[in-house]
């Protein structure tokens, strides 16, 4: 019981879905800029449906991809997730069967892609992709390391997002938890002396209910 | 072998000591000429535990076996002939790298990935157990799992492989995460270097990653009969598997411990 209500409080004060969306978007925008790439995206793994879902896309004109899903058995992103290992591929368009799969998991058919699993604790949460870096003769291990650093950042953001979603899901159909969450959320939004008054009121309420 | 044993394996009576005299399989100087020259990997059975291998790919050649591993309703392992081939391209790439170094090694595909993420860790475990039971000389694992509960079971499997002379050669992670089985000392773990020569490899003085092999901008076989350029420890791992196959092809009967020692001695920064 206590845990359920604590989760309710946590859910009320956790950042909103929109905040996470902005955080993830900023990660892919920076990843795209650092690598000088054409596109970048974060795919979130939905363990209930065994699908990958576009959670953030760097390009303004590809925002319609956010929310789109495909099976985790498809394409490079699915493989990277299952094998928990990063990959960098060039010239993927040379194989038409393959590029169809890749297009499905990226939104368009890139010439080259970097994909890295997003791992938090022992759970793979999704995949970060960076598509079509500028053509160069060689790839470097320093870039691979950089990709790993972005992956760590994106994984932390995804882990928080997942926690917030689970906490909110726990509230559904639970009127007591919803009531406690509403109070916690209202207090969180108060400022200055109103916040102090609000807390005093809650302290008094706690004494009455004891 | 058990019928021939004259004493229990966990102790050595005085009178039995004389009966276990072993020949030293290594010469006074182990170098690349002794370890590799003239070897094609013939007679060595290499298993690619991955996403399957495309049949008839010109850069892979003949496959001696292809099996798909799935889990039944009770979690039991089902190993069936793999009629689908490679679902991703990755396994074909790994097989092609082994073939390019050890042209006459037997290549067997054991597909554990491609059916989606769910259950992929357990399928990997089941596939590895099945591969070890087949007694392959080398199992190439360009993949890992982060599930701790599977880590302990993988550890036991890695040890049993080691004792029955099956070498597990596995990709190291290049991110700060705990994953398995590459971290185990009974496994040969591989990261990437940036050079172009597929026979150049380095011993790492600072494990757990034990060796660095060619893994950057590698031309690899891919599904559809073609090839692509790829980077990742995934491709460094079969390079070392190929080199280990050359060593075993020339010197069959070496234990994984001895092959690892030979690899160390002929690595580019030691004696190679």
Descriptive labels:
heterodimer, A: alpha+beta, 2 domains, six-stranded antiparallel β-sheet, 19% strand, B: 272 residues, Rossmann fold, nine-stranded mixed β-sheet, 6 helices, 11 strands
In short:
With 210 residues, chain A is an alpha+beta fold. Chain A has helices at residues 2-13, 17-35, 75-83, 96-106, 141-171, 175-189, 192-209; strands at residues 39-46, 51-57, 69-71, 87-90, 113-120, 123-131.
Mean pLDDT of chain A: 83
Assign the structural class of chain A, choosing from mainly alpha, mainly beta, alpha/beta, alpha+beta, or little secondary structure.
alpha+beta
Give the biggest sheet of chain A.
6 strands, antiparallel
Task: Estimate the helix proportion of chain B, in percent.
Answer: 25-40%
The count of helical stretches of chain A stands at: 7
The tally of domains of chain B stands at 1
The amount of beta strand of chain A, in percent, is: 15-25%
Q: Could you please say which CATH topology of chain B applies here? A: Rossmann fold
Say how many strands of chain B there are. 11
Parts with pLDDT < 50 across at least 5 consecutive residues of chain B: none
How many domains of chain A, as an integer?
2
Helix/strand-derived category of chain B reads alpha/beta
| SSE arrangement of chain B, N to C | HEEEHEHEHEEEEEEHH
Cα-to-Cα separation, first versus last residue of chain A: 16 Å
CATH first level of the largest domain in chain A? Alpha Beta
Note the gap between the termini of chain B: 36 Å
CATH class of chain B, please?
Alpha Beta
Using only CA atoms, what is the Rg of chain A?
Answer: 21 Å
What is Rg of chain B? Answer: 18 Å
